[in-house]
Amino acid sequence: MNLQQFRFLREAARQKFNITAAARALHTSQPGVSKAIIELEDELGVSIFARAGKRILGLTPPGQQVLLAAERIMQEVDNLKKLSRDYAGAPSGTLRVATTHTQARYLLPPVVRQFAQKYPQVRLKLLQADPPQIAHMLNTGQADVGVATESLADAAGLRSIAVYEWQHAAIVPPQHPLARFQLTPGKLGLKDLARNPIVTYEAHFAGRGKIDAAFAAVAIEPSIVLEAIDADVIKTYVQLGMGVGIIAAVAVDPARDQLVMLPCGHLFGTNTTRLAVKHGAYLRGFVYSFIELLAPGWDKRRLEEAFA
After folding, report:
1. Shortest CA distance to 205 belongs to which of 105, 114, 119, 124?
2. For the chain, which terminus, N or C, has the lower number of CB atoms within 10 Å?
3. Are 161 and 303 a contacting pair, CB within 8 Å?
């Protein structure tokens, strides 16, 4: 057995058992990947893949266990590489942060600026995705840190901490009938919103689940005419008169956006943005620094205790 066989097996699983795609991702040949996995099967004496002719259907029961072991081995290899780089001199490398549009646009900019000033030799990648994709990126080693509102606390294989709390707001043009509620904070009701077409987030983003649950709890089915993953897109269509927007309040600047913001915390509750890492992954020194910039007070000692 060798590490290359484990690496090929892991990539084949990531590519949904498409060996050609796995070879392309690994910058090698398809026959080379197939041969390495067959040799691993021969050495172990079990079939890793269930096959129908030349087509791979998935993993066999022992293949599932082999893949789990290969994932653990490769994670430890990755951890050793990261550890050696931490002690090799000046911090350098790449920090990969998987996050949603709202966090990338409104939460992270000052953090990224401070981080870049502190670690000029570290390349930072922002990988925008929905929360389930973010969890997958962390678990497969494609991202070092994930930042999102939905689901990270419950995702298998991850450890997370709370970063900050926020609430939704409704947004309307200044001439809209609902703009009158600006003078009576907390009086806006679900029925008032439901009398209008609504423009809001797609199902997996920015607390959309709480919006749906609030309407369902009072047996109201709102007319959602447009869904988007991007708060700026939602604001654009609200400005065009397509409906009432419901977005994260942090994404609204009433003066810049020329929109009236109506706080909706009393309707949809409070949301928590969380930061997550893969359980057992070695975190380089600059990763701890990034986390502390994003969540002051979470130093290395406290994080190690929380992630243990």
Report:
1. 105
2. C
3. yes
